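Fig. S4 source data, part A: sequence.
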Amino acid sequence: QVQLVESGGGLVQAGGSLRLSCAASGSIFSINVMGWYRQAPGKQRELVANINSGGITNYADSVKGRFTISRDNAKNTVYLQMNSLKAEDTAVYYCSYRAGIRGPVDYWGQGTQVTVSS
């Protein structure tokens, strides 16, 4: 079992910044992928960004150049720095963990609300 605890959501004005954190604990596999997904009301959950244990990153086109994902393997923690936020970034953001490089997400965080006011 892996537990994911998120923090850092909130309300921000358009153009502002937020930083999300997600700490993983439990049975962490040395090779893994951690990331962030988001789900806006009435929409499907979508990938925002992920990063593997080797530091390789992947971003949704909609956030490239504005969001940066990073991780601290010693702390089993992943971060999402979100800059130049837009109203359309408003969603519940979920941390994800996947053991290995491929396959479905194994565990989800509880979600943290990000609201961007225009």
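Fig. S4 source data, part B ends here. The CA atoms of residues 44 and 116 lie 19 Å apart.
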